[in-house]
């Protein structure tokens, strides 16, 4: 009985001892593997400071290099990547503000306005075109020939041009300016299309072809400062004085010669009895007087818009 029981006990002890050794080995080998599998997740969530602290608390070993590799492969924190961008400084965009009342601001923005001047609007009372007016104290770059022709076309074929031509045609028919056109609806049609043709004719010569040939600026630069007399004289004198493409003062050949050429060309669509030098001279002078009045109200429109209509 003793001989038969001893091998059985020894065999059970060996099995128990092997089981214990296997369990211990599994714990020893599996623990580092579990730590290395969990390390990237915890490292990516923690900050660089906590990653450094954890790496210092758990020293690397020869059998488990995963903590050291995880600490080295960690990406930079978002705050570290954004730090160089927050330290950069950018200059503010240039503005058209000045405290010098005599300063002239150079700008590429035709809609800019200085702190000392009133702003020109694109339309007067929301209807009448005012595309060629420039606010006070501004200096714009030279125009290309294409830009000059586009501005002349905008002034000629704007929707308001058809409304203004209708009003002018009504006054002309009421005063019987051209008896050959007669009265009534047919007569009004004659006055209407003649008025439209005269307007487009003058605009293209004065604002388009003239400025291109003589290298002059077809825009009206508002003075915006001074007494009523000073600003009025400045405005009406723009019929005779204008600016070159280099902003130098020059005799306004575009206005004087252009309006004369337009008056001569317009005789082609009027009856022969009106194709005389007298009629051409009258229309020539009338065109220059009307343009002088246009310069005057364009000069004073920003002031009226601000103090009468309370628009800033």
Question: Could you characterize what this model shows?
Answer:
By secondary structure, the protein is mostly helical. It folds into 2 domains: 2-67; 105-307, no CATH class. Helix content is 60%, strand content 6%. It contains 10 helices and 8 strands. The chain has helices spanning 2-45, 48-57, 66-73, 78-86, 145-157, 159-174, 184-214, 228-237, 253-266, 277-307; strands at residues 105-106, 123-124, 128-129, 133-134, 138-139, 220-221, 241-243, 249-251. The strands form 4 sheets. It has a two-stranded parallel ribbon. A two-stranded antiparallel sheet has the order 2-3. Strands 4-6 form a two-stranded parallel ribbon. A hairpin with a 5-residue loop joins strand 7 and strand 8. Helix 1 (2-45) runs parallel beside helix 3, helix 6 crosses helix 7 (184-214) and helix 8 (228-237) runs antiparallel to helix 10. The radius of gyration is 44 Å and the shape is globular.
Oligomer: single chain
**Domains, number:** 2
Secondary-structure content class: mainly alpha
Strand order of the largest sheet: 1-5
Low-confidence stretches: 1-9, 31-72, 78-95
Shape: globular
Topology order in helix (H) and strand (E) letters: HHHHEEEEEHHHEHEEHH
Tally of strands: 8
Cα separation of the termini: 120 Å
């Amino acid at each position: 009985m003793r001989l038969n029981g001893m091998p059985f006990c020894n065999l059970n002890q060996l099995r128990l001892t092997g089981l214990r050794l296997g369990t211990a080995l599994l714990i020893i080998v599996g623990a580092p593997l579990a730590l290395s599998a969990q390390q990237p997740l915890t490292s990516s969530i923690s900050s660089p400071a906590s990653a450094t602290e954890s790496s210092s608390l758990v020293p690397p070993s020869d059998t488990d290099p995963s903590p050291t590799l995880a600490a080295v492969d960690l990406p930079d924190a978002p705050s570290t990547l954004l730090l160089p961008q927050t330290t950069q400084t950018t200059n503010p965009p240039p503005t058209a503000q000045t405290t010098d009342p005599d300063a002239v601001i150079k700008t590429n923005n035709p809609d800019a306005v200085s702190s000392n001047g009133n702003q020109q609007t694109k339309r007067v009372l929301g209807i009448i075109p005012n595309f060629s007016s420039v606010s006070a104290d501004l200096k714009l770059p030279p125009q290309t020939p294409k830009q000059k022709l586009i501005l002349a076309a905008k002034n000629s074929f704007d929707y308001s041009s058809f409304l203004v031509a209708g009003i002018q045609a009504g006054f002309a028919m009421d005063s019987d300016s051209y008896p050959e056109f007669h009265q009534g609806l047919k007569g009004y049609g004659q006055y209407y299309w003649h008025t439209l043709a005269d307007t487009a004719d003058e605009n293209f010569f004065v604002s388009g072809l003239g400025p291109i040939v003589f290298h002059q600026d077809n825009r009206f630069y508002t003075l915006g400062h001074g007494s009523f007399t000073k600003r009025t004289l400045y405005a009406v004198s723009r019929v005779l004085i204008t600016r070159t493409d280099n902003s130098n003062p020059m005799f306004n050949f575009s206005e004087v010669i252009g309006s004369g050429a337009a008056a001569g060309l317009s005789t082609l669509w009027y009856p022969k009895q009106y194709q005389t030098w007298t009629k051409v001279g009258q229309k020539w002078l009338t065109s220059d007087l009307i343009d002088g009045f246009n310069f005057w109200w364009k000069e004073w429109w920003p002031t009226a818009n601000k103090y009468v209509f309370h628009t800033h």
